[in-house]
Specification:
The structure holds three protein chains of three kinds. Chain A is 20% helix and 36% strand. In chain A, helix 2 runs antiparallel to helix 6, helix 7 crosses helix 8 and helix 8 packs antiparallel against helix 9. The radius of gyration of chain A is 21 Å and the shape is globular. The chains are: A alpha/beta, B alpha/beta, C alpha/beta. Chains B and C meet through helix 2, strand 7 and helix 3 of B and helix 9 and helix 10 of C.
């Protein structure tokens, strides 16, 4: 089987669908069939495509890995160091396959009785009325071949439904563990936050060992009016892996979405985050930290789309780039003609720790309304020599001063994570990766 | 709270208003007495926010009929700033941002303007600083709010708290809170509601304009009015809000239509 | 735009009167003869005539720039008179010999030509149409070695200095209007601060265009030697005519090691009427060379006048650790057009620049910020911070921002921030609902918006600038 060409790559990937079972739900099968068709109609993007200008993913087409369909017998003892402390409701997927023996629905029965935290295939029949208007409706796959692939392979995933006016006290941990080399996994998440509800979700991609594998993840998040979602995403895949992901968020009136995305792993990664403020007075905070080294490439594309008036968006994206690594940030903000009184700020701050590291940052503002407040800022550079000097003048060695400032640069984003155990773990990672001696 | 023999503060009779030539308010009647808390509930587009803006005097809304008396005087004879100085306060659904103008300057100017109107002493910057910090504790606000530009870069929740802080400073006779709860998380809602409750006295009155019953768990209304298509179609006690939450707005309109024999 | 806003932003132009004074005006038209005539009237040395003729030849080969975001009819350079001076012009021994009509004119404009004047502590050079008519405090400045006066005079009294620096920062062929100015400039100020001298008072030039058909082409040259420092102010007004007058000036600043030049402008040329008839076409080239180590060039401008403004006060940061600053408020109303900004050219190591630009557009006006930050490969450790804010008043006006950033050294840190905001009905209603009147609200918003720039102006100018904007300052606003 030749996979030297990009189209041959997509074809051979799709062959893995043979093991997928037909669904009793006609709309579900139709969604997947549409996605297969869209995979066929598209090509793997090259750097000639403006959306992929800085990210060459051609190495990927040499890796037509098939998905895993067999359940893992991984035991808790092998993975519990990834768990949150204190324990929280948790859905675990191993190489993309649901692992019930590792998952727990630990909820407070008094307040959370109607909250749904489960795997999609188990729940699809029971919640079909709720799911049909949401599943596959936000993650656009007509012009995104990777989302189309993920949708073509859709059969399971994480499902969270928070009913009207319910606040889930504990964070929900979605843990995606890669264990096998030369496999592709297609993680999928759907979060439906009904009117006035509130929930915190951690989408956590980890690897049990180093190895070459491919993750192609899609998440969809729908916030009804006045709902609040705090979405923390941590990508700590193997440094040889490929991680392609997209997340589509839809915000109704007066809802509030907070996102913190931490990118640490993968040889090549690409994260598309699309946030649409479709209701009046919706608010989002979109923060990100990319911390990469050696020959890693991490590309973050965000699009914040203000459709209705009085929307608020706050974005702060930071990259710390070491070795010969390459970080890309493309932050698009669209303000539609109807979205008067939009208030949007964006900042892209980047720190280069070596002469070979590089960064491409591209803030992109498309404003079609006249009564808006939009501010954006971008910086690329090294540590501030005056700050270093100040610390040295207080007796610190230059190395210590540099370490302190680099750590502080990254920690500012990590600090926004409300789960103490996860925050500490990430702080430790930032510390390890940024300190010199 | 309903007090015996308290005097009417606001009397609205047959109020009609248009915006861009379209009639939004189609005859509103409402009496608010000192000490009372009224909730006006309704779906989007029912006219409840328009009602709030008409009372405050926004130029885009044209009054086409009816009367509004505030402390017995014709409210429509007053310019928006005169209404504010007379004691009508609107907490905005979407507070405006003013980059470059520090919050403490703005707060002091508005406070002193209203104080002067009431024949009371104005505060100098130092005195005001102490005064405002005390009020901020009520809303659990951090003092660095004072140095930031008015609402600029604030989150939705911070803007709402800043509105209630202004209410605390200006001590209005009539406070109209327009969707103050929307976009607030539970903790912020509790803090804001607690602030409002502490400001309620037997001499002032509060009108809560809201879509959701949730706020009314914290600020308990004496009266609940349901608005639809520019009219108040039902009035009841706090139980009405709970019924609405259970049955939805359609329930009231169906019931009203049935009662009206439509 | 609501009537309230309309009234608030439309303030009458207070300097639109014409002085009845007999002037010596050269015939209209531009050719070599015109240039020789100007040079002869000023009794200039041969090298300066050559400088002019070379510039003229260069200008003939150039074309007016098309890239600015402004529209205007083609200028007929043959319909302009290139020399106009009040008569009789004899050499003045003291202020008492200045034509009383001129004294009254400047009194009316609030410019002190008496050394005992209200604005004591500021030395003023007064330029009326094409010539300098008076300079105050000359003697006092001379005592510390400062040379301050008209450039035509300096050509005679300090020819070596003028010859050494003229055209070194803005070369004669730099751009179309700079070439024209180099050919026909008539007068302007010259200022030389010797080594180690901190200028004891602010220096100021007041420019007045009076004649309907003359252009004004002034040339200013300021040199601060090692360790010297000076704060220089420039003001300008013109009468109200229904035709457009051309103003094409060149300003050159040179700062040697550890020297510091601060140049502030309040530009209030006649802007045309509410229908866009008349007004000055203001095409100006201003550039400072931060030549020495640790030198600093700072531009502050408040641009309220002119039908068209085309102006980019720039800094060439050549010395290591040199600093460039640009603080600007540009206000446009009615049919005014402004395309203004700055260039920061970083050549030396650890050079730093700051750009703060505030554009306010009202009426049907069009206000653009255009700025270039260039970090050369040699500029290791260079830093730039730019902030460009636009404010729209009403909904018929427009604002654009064109930041150009060229970084050729990876140790540089370049920051850019931009924002757009608006004063409309909703903003005013918010203030009114807190008991604050529309007038106070607009004043508070505008002053808050411009605060960062006004803080940079010398005291007297800051007061004038706020008055100029036509908004009264509420006591509580800082």
């Amino acid at each position: 089987m030749s996979v030297a060409t990009a189209s041959g790559y997509l074809e051979s990937l799709l062959q893995g669908r043979r093991q997928l079972q037909a669904s009793p739900l006609a709309w579900f099968d139709r969604l997947r069939a549409d996605a297969v068709e869209r995979v066929g109609a598209q090509r793997v993007p090259t750097t000639r495509n403006e959306e992929w200008r800085f990210t060459d993913i051609s190495p990927l087409i040499k890796l037509p890995f098939q998905p895993v369909y067999t359940a893992s017998n991984l035991q808790a003892a092998e993975v519990e160091h990834f768990y949150l402390d204190p324990a929280a409701p948790r859905l675990v997927f191993v190489d993309g396959v649901y692992a019930p023996q590792l998952s727990t629905q630990l909820l407070n029965p008094a307040t959370d009785s109607n909250v749904v935290i489960t795997n999609l295939s188990a729940a699809i029949s029971a919640h079909v009325m709720v799911l049909e208007p949401h599943l596959g409706r936000y993650a656009e796959f007509h012009n995104n071949v990777f989302t189309a692939l993920n949708t073509a392979f859709l059969h399971d995933g994480a499902l969270i439904i928070v009913p009207r006016n319910v606040s889930v006290d504990m964070p929900v941990h979605l843990l995606f563990i890669a264990t096998q080399k030369e496999a592709t996994s297609y993680p999928r998440c759907l979060l439906i936050a009904e009117s006035g509800s509130a929930v915190t979700v951690i989408e956590d991609h980890v690897a049990l060992q180093e190895g070459v594998y491919v993750t192609n993840a899609v998440a969809e998040i729908a916030l009804a009016d006045n709902a609040r979602v705090n979405h923390i995403r941590v990508q700590r895949d193997s440094s040889q892996a490929f991680h392609i992901a997209s997340c589509a968020v839809s915000l109704a009136q007066a809802s509030c979405y907070q996102s913190t995305s931490i990118t640490l792993g993968a040889r090549i990664s690409r994260y598309n985050l699309n946030v649409r403020l479709t209701g009046e007075g919706a608010e989002c905070t979109v923060d990100g930290l990319t911390l990469i080294a050696e020959r890693q490439l991490a590309d973050t594309h965000t699009c914040i789309d203000h459709v209705k008036p009085y929307g608020i968006s706050r974005q702060s994206h930071k990259c710390i780039v070491d070795g010969a690594a390459h970080a890309v940030f493309n932050g698009k903000i669209i303000v539609h003609p109807d979205a008067q009184h939009t208030d949007s700020t964006q900042s892209s701050r980047n720190l280069l720790l070596s002469g070979r590291a590089h960064i491409d940052t591209k803030p992109q503002l498309e404003i079609f309304a006249d009564d808006v407040k939009c501010a954006h800022g971008a910086t690329v550079g090294q540590l501030d020599s005056e700050e270093i000097f100040y610390l040295m003048s207080r007796g610190l060695s230059e190395m210590t001063a540099r370490n302190l400032l680099t750590y502080a640069f990254g920690a500012e984003i990590i600090e926004r994570i409300p789960i103490v155990s996860l925050k500490h773990r990430l702080e430790q990672t930032v510390l390890e990766r940024t300190q010199r001696n | 709270m309903i007090y015996q023999n308290s005097k009417p503060l606001l009397e609205v009779r047959g109020l009609r208003a248009t915006v861009n030539g379209i009639e939004i308010l189609k005859g509103i009647d409402l009496t608010v007495r000192s000490g009372e808390v009224h909730a006006i509930m309704g779906t989007n587009g029912s006219g409840k926010s328009t009602f709030a803006k008409v009372l405050a005097g926004h130029a885009a809304y044209v009054v086409t009929g009816g009367t509004v008396a505030f402390e017995g005087k014709n409210l429509f004879e007053l310019a928006p700033e005169e209404r504010a100085r007379a004691g009508v306060f609107l907490a905005f659904q979407y507070p405006i941002e003013i980059p470059g103008v520090a919050n403490n300057q703005f707060l002091r100017l508005t406070y002193n303007t209203v104080q002067a109107q009431r024949g009371k002493d104005e505060l100098d910057p130092l005195e005001f600083d102490d005064f405002v910090r005390e009020k901020m504790k009520l809303l659990e606000m951090s003092p660095d709010f004072l140095d930031r530009s008015v609402n600029a870069g604030f989150s939705g929740g911070e803007k709402k708290r800043n509105e209630i802080l202004q209410m605390a400073l200006l001590e209005p006779l009539l406070a109209i809170l327009d969707e103050t709860d929307s976009g607030l998380d539970i903790d912020a809602l509790r803090i804001v509601a607690n602030g409002v409750n502490q400001l309620a006295t037997k001499d002032n009155a509060i009108i809560l304009v809201t879509h959701y019953q949730r706020l009314l768990n914290y600020i308990v209304p004496d009266y609940v009015h349901v608005m639809e298509s520019g009219r108040i179609i039902k009035t009841g006690g706090k139980q009405l809000a709970l019924d609405l939450e259970t049955h939805g707005y359609d329930w009231v309109s169906i019931e009203q239509r049935a009662a009206a024999g439509v | 735009m609501s009537a309230v806003l309309q009234n608030l932003v439309n303030q009458p132009y207070k300097h639109g009167f014409v002085t009845e004074i007999e002037s010596d005006v050269a015939p209209k038209g531009l050719n070599e003869g015109t240039i020789r005539l100007i040079s002869a009237k000023k009794n200039e040395p041969e090298w300066l005539l050559e400088f002019r003729l070379k510039a003229y030849q260069k200008w003939l080969t150039m074309e007016a720039p098309q890239w600015p975001n402004i529209k205007y009819p083609k200028i007929d350079f043959q319909a302009i008179s290139y020399y106009s001076a009040p008569k009789p012009r004899k050499k003045l021994g003291s202020m008492d010999e200045v034509d009383p009509e001129l004294l009254r004119t400047f009194e009316k404009l609030g410019v002190p030509m008496h050394e005992r004047a209200v604005l004591a502590g500021v030395a003023v050079d007064v330029i009326f149409d094409s010539v300098s008519v008076a300079t105050t405090y000359k003697q006092k400045l001379a005592e510390v070695g400062i040379i301050f006066g008209s450039i035509s005079e300096a050509v005679h009294t300090h020819p070596d200095l003028v010859r050494q620096y003229l055209g070194t920062v803005v070369p004669i062929g730099d751009n179309y209007y700079a070439a024209l100015n180099s050919a026909v400039f008539t007068d302007g100020s010259f200022c030389f601060i010797p080594k180690g001298v901190k200028c004891p008072m602010d220096l100021s030039t007041y420019f007045r265009i009076n004649t309907q058909e003359s252009g004004q082409f002034e040339r200013t040259l300021i040199i601060a030697e090692e360790g010297a420092s000076v704060s220089y102010l420039e003001g300008c007004t013109a009468p109200r005519f229904d035709t457009n007058q051309l103003h094409a000036a060149v300003v050159e600043l040179i700062a040697h090691d550890n020297a510091d030049i601060k140049y502030s402008t309040v530009q209030n040329w006649y802007a045309g009427d509410e229908n866009g008839i008349g007004g000055i076409f203001n095409f100006v080239t201003k550039r400072g060379l931060a030549k020495g180590v640790n030198s600093r060039i700072s531009w502050t401008q408040v641009e309220t006048g002119s039908a068209i403004t085309w102006k980019y006060p720039s800094c060439v940061l050549q010395g290591d650790n040199s600093v460039g600053e640009f603080y600007s408020v540009a206000v446009t109303n009615n049919y005014q057009q402004a395309d203004t900004g700055t260039k920061m050219i970083h050549l030396g190591k650890n050079t730093r620049s700051t750009i703060v630009s505030k554009g306010i557009s009202a009426g049907h006006s069009n206000n653009s910020y255009r700025g270039l930050v260039r970090i050369a490969p040699t500029a290791a450790g260079a830093r730039n911070y730019s902030q460009c804010d636009s404010m729209l008043i009403g909904d018929q006006c427009s604002a654009s921002t064109f930041p150009y950033i060229q970084v050729r050294n990876n140790s540089a840190i370049v920051e850019h921030e931009a924002s757009t905001s608006k004063i409309g009905e909703d903003q005013l209603f918010y203030f009114a609902q807190r008991g604050i009147s529309n007038e106070e609200a607009v004043s508070m918003i505008i002053n808050g918006f411009c605060k960062d720039v006004f803080q940079q102006l010398p005291m007297e100018f800051a007061v004038e600038a706020t008055k100029l904007l036509g908004f009264k300052l509420e006591g509580s606003v800082g």
